[in-house]
Structure formats: structure tokens, C-alpha cells
């Protein structure tokens, strides 16, 4: 069965061109012309991936991303004519996995989608002799467990809802606890297609990850910033 993709775009010409290109890539494409229609479609029958325009009128793309993230961790690529760093960071902080600026080549979108699907379906780049389960935080009341093979993180037995990108980031850091990974290293390992934008995309996803795995996100002790170098994971 082909992967299902929800394309959310209010410009008829762009939406049609993208739909044809995505169908050529093997996707079964559903369309939405505004934010309300997109949210209703996701609530009714969640797709495998979303390609979402940021500017949609009454309900913008930021609101759609936040709505989706309340219940789903499916991959989301935002496309927008806005290239300002503030807009990119805002979309990523809302929960998008990737951001592509207009005008763009259709091949760029399809390449990003292939990379997201690889990240969703592949395990982290760790040696086969590494443990497939790791206790990240031995908090007696709510231990934090990373199940690499199962693709899940649990806090006190309850699943922590991480996005594909957040899970990959955590796995890469957990592959060698205590070792500092630079932003560039994380980009190469997690964004396997190569990300040509601002390296601060890593910072945004790290901040989102911390809100979900740290006991106190304002004072992180698990995912630690090493100023001027990058990030490391310290087991607790």
C-alpha cells in the first residue's frame, strides 16, 4: 500500500503541481485547502506524512501543526515563502520536522520526504553490540527508559510522545553517553539528506526534546549544552 500524504496548500496551481509530483513518487495524496479542512482530515484518518503551507488564512500552518501534535507524532514538512529565521524557528517549535522555503524545486520536497521516511523507519546509527534498551534517568518515582529497537521512550511506564526527529536526536546522543556531538554532527546523523538551512534547527528540536524528557526543562541535566561545542547526554 502506498504511503498516504496530506498536502495542505491554498494555491491551486502549487497544490496541483505538487500533487502530480508526489503521486509520481508513489504517494497516495489527499488534499486540503485550508487549516480547518486539514485538521478535520487528520482527526478523521491520520496520514503517514503531511506537507503543509504556512500561510493559510484564518487558521495558519502554525495552528495546524500544534493541533496535529496534540495527538500524533507523524512527520510534518512546512513550506513557506517566509525565509526569516524567526518564522523557521516558530514553525519548528510548533512541532514541524522540517522547513522548506518557496520558491523550491519539487525534487527538494521529495528528497526531504524520503529522508523523513528513512528516519521514521530506520533505527539510529549505533553499533549492533550496543544495548537496545537504556535507562536514561533512574528517577525512583518515574524512571526514563529508551527502547531503541522498539522506537519508544517511557517515563514511569507511560510512553513519552516524541516526534521522529526528537527520537532520532535522543538516540544519537544516547549512542555514546558523555560524548559531545556538535550541531553539524547531529545534522549529518539525523537530517541524513543534508540540511542546507540554519544549524539552529538542532537547537529548536533539542529544546522541544527537553520539554518531554527532562525532570525540569528549565534546568536540563540529561541533555546538556556544552557551550561552543554542542550537546551531550548525561545519564542520571
Q: If you had to describe this structure to a student in words, what would you say it looks like?
A:
The protein has 8 helices and 11 strands. The protein is of the alpha/beta class and 236 residues long. It starts with a strand and ends with a strand. Residues 122-128 have low confidence and may be disordered. The protein has 2 domains: 4-121, Rossmann fold, CATH 3.40.50; 133-233, Arc Repressor Mutant, subunit A (Orthogonal Bundle), CATH 1.10.10. 39% of the residues lie in helices and 20% in strands. The longest helix is centred in the middle third of the chain and has 16 residues, at 106-121.
CATH hierarchy: architecture of the largest domain: 3-Layer(aba) Sandwich
The backbone outline, from C-alpha atoms, is: globular
What proportion of the residues is helical, as a percent range? 25-40%
Query: Which CATH first-tier class of the largest domain would you pick?
Result: Alpha Beta
Ends distance: 43 Å
For the sheet with most strands, the description reads: 5 strands, parallel
| Count of separate structural domains | 2
Rounded Rg: 18 Å
Query: If you average the pLDDT, what whole number results?
Result: 83
